[in-house]
Design brief:
There is one protein chain. By secondary structure, this protein is α+β, with helices and mostly antiparallel strands. It has two domains: about 5-70, Orthogonal Bundle (Arc Repressor Mutant, subunit A); about 85-140, 2-Layer Sandwich (Dna Ligase, domain 1), CATH 3.30.1490. The protein is about 30% helix and about 10% strand. The chain has five helices and five strands. A three-stranded mixed β-sheet has the order 4-3-5, with no helix packed on it. Strands 1-2 form a two-stranded antiparallel sheet. Helix 2 (about 20-30) crosses helix 3, helix 2 packs across helix 4 and helix 3 packs across helix 4 (about 50-65). The longest helix is centred in the middle third of the chain and has 13 residues, at about 50-65. It is globular.
């Protein structure tokens, strides 16, 4: 996703600073990045940037809605520029690769809980877990059984 970092910062009411612009540009070169990965990309252009400063920048970008933070179980927080929709994610349980999954059913929030306990539900986060194509290839693709498949219907060759 390509956006003009300076324009996005101005529209969000944030000052345009070199670390903020660099962070947005770093996420354009690779989504679902950890703070450490964004920091590594930013320091090539801004070598004086600290990791702590990058956490502050990412928090400001997330708070302004320019960046979305996701937190897959057992993984550090990840950051992406795709905001404003209620998409979900699929995560490889071996290597941790992450991809986007568009809305599961219908309009946002994509899922309807049976009981909201009085909450006004605005988004739903769903994380699908499985094996990415690269890990499936390394594993020999022997376990290509789709989720929910009935093993009793599986016939031996």
């Amino acid at each position: 996703m390509q956006i003009d970092a300076s324009d996005a910062l101005r529209r969000a009411g944030l000052r345009v600073t070199a670390p903020r612009v660099a962070a947005v540009e770093a996420l354009q070169s690779g989504s679902h990045a950890t703070a450490d990965e964004v920091f590594a990309r930013v320091t090539t252009a801004l070598p004086g940037t600290s990791l702590q400063a990058m956490y502050v920048v990412l928090a400001a970008l997330t708070g302004a809605g320019i960046v979305r933070r996701i937190e897959p179980a057992g993984s550090p927080s990840r950051y992406e520029l795709r905001t404003g929709d209620n998409h979900h994610h699929v995560v490889c349980s071996l290597c941790g690769a992450i991809d986007d999954v568009d809305c599961v059913v219908g309009e946002a929030p994509c899922l309807a809980p049976s009981d909201t306990s009085g909450y006004l539900v605005q988004t739903a986060e769903v994380t699908f877990w499985g094996l990415c194509p690269d890990c499936r290839a390394r594993e020999g693709a022997a376990d290509d059984e789709p989720v929910g498949a009935d093993p009793a219907l599986h016939t031996a060759p």
